[in-house]
Amino acid sequence: MPVAAGTAAEQMAYLTKGAVDVVRESELRSKLDEAGRRERPLVVKVGFDPTAPDLHLGHTVLIRKMKHFQDLGHAVVFLIGDFTGLIGDPTGRSKTRPPLTRDEIEANADTYRAQVFKLLDPDRTVVEFNSRWLGALRGEDWIRLAARYNVAQMLERRDFRQRYEQGRPIAIHEFLYPLAQAYDSVHLAADVELGGTDQLFNLNVGRDVMPSFDLSPQVVMTVPLLVGTDGAEKMSKSAGNYVGVTEPPDEMFGKVMSVSDDLMWSWYELLTDLSAAEIERLRAEVAGGGLHPKRAKQALGRRIVGDFHSAAAAAAAELEFERRFAAGALPAELGERVVALSPDGARLSALMVEVGFAASNSAATRLIEQGSVRVDGERIADRAVRLPPDAGPFVLQVGKRRVVRVVPAPPA
Fold it and tell me: Which one of 6, 34, 180, 311 is most buried, counting C-beta atoms within 10 A?
């Protein structure tokens, strides 16, 4: 693939779409110009500590930005932090984070790779493990690396500064994490490093350190946190407002259709490859009445499901959505779960957690209070409702997407 197809302005617009920080835009433009002249792809580095292997759409905002660089012919390095994972990233932590074991790191890394290649081209993605060079550093090498940064600079980091001012401990090895991440950039001679907004400090350490190794400082780019399906909080499993990348097409499409019309445009920006100009034209068409918001949202759902499954699966999910919700029908294939009830019955909120419709009892209680829960079609309003021990099979429905037939197990 040719490096940097399109005009410089088009490349910049495509690459910076949805970005929060670009340090600095002028340098990125210069690097793109030079890459085009020399026909040398930029080295774009993104590091992942394999701590949470099950990805949701919030994680893919960063992976999609990697894809945008890849689309323009640049070299994307998917860096698995198997060495830095042993240190533990202190970002956002109020106390020292326990490191992962080697077995946990290797298992999570395998899962990560299987999921990110739903978006990235595996044949054009360099997969690296930073233990290859960080593990080879001798004691004196670490001392020389540490000498390139000072404590005052480290305490510019908000979570370090807060812990220091509050008298809470900061372990010395936590200072090594941003330095190790910076050395990754040195070893790879990175032109660009991408990360979430919470990683801005770490990314800038790499930018600060690289000139001391006679390397041009990397451009730093951050992407925002994705707001979840509730339209209020960042997407997370604990909040129950997530869309997992391995969820079935019907579930994924239905969750996309549940977001508000306003949030839809943020998802278009962060979860699709459409350019900013294309999204703006689509938005203007909706605002002008030429396109119904539901149709725009369906198009978004088809794009997202198509990315993680297939175009055929996306089309089938859209048809199933129309059948179920336009006609008020239950799913064509209603799943079934057998659950054991104790002699005194079970709280509905606990049962919702057991069948996977809520991440916790508190999340289940919120859904009941919001009027999202039905049993055999009847809306449940009492957060403390209990099912009797002799309850028969019933249909449990949360919202419009999650429906299952619950079959109490016979007494032992």
Answer: 180
The CATH superfamily assigned to 336-408 is RNA-binding S4 domain (3.10.290.10)
What are the tens digits of pLDDT across the range 320-332?
888 776 555 666 5
Question: By CB neighbour count within 10 A (0-12 exposed, 13-18 middle, 19+ buried), where does 219 fall?
Answer: buried
Residues 92-111: tens digit of each pLDDT: 554 555 667 778 877 887 88
- Average pLDDT (115-122) is 90
Q: What are the start-end ranges of the E strands in 208-308? A: 219-223
User: What's 227's DSSP letter?
Assistant: B
User: What's the CA gap between 277 and 102, in Å, rounded?
Assistant: 45
Compute the half-sphere exposure of residue 297: CA atoms within 13 Å on the CB side of its CA.
19
Nearest of 87, 61, 81 to residue 127 by alpha carbon = 81
Looking up tokens 């299952």 gives: 404
* Percent above pLDDT 70 for the chain: 91
DSSP state of 348: H
Model pLDDT for residues 338-354, shown as the tens digit of each residue: 777 777 778 888 888 88
Strands 75-80 and 43-48 turn out to be parallel
Q: Which CATH class is domain 249-326?
A: mainly alpha
pLDDT for the residue 94: 46
Q: What is the pTM of this model?
A: 0.75
Round to whole Å and give the CA distance between 14 and 26: 15
Percent of the chain clearing pLDDT 90 (strictly above): 54
Within a 10 A sphere around the Cβ of 389, how many other Cβ atoms? 13
In sequence order, the 6+-apart residues with CB closer than 8 A to the CB of 383 are: 349, 365, 368, 369
Tell me how far CA of residue 268 lies from CA of 18, 59, 301, in angstroms: 10, 15, 10
Q: Which two tokens stand for residue 78?
A: 């998917």
**Neighbour tally for 275: CB within 10 Å:** 14
3-class secondary-structure state, position 107 = helix
Kindly list the domain boundaries of the chain, sorted by start residue.
8-223, 249-326, 336-408
Average model confidence (pLDDT) across the chain: 87
CATH of 8-223, one of 3.30.465.10, 3.30.1330.60, 3.40.50.620, 3.40.50.150: 3.40.50.620
CA quadruple 242, 245, 250, 252: dihedral sign: positive
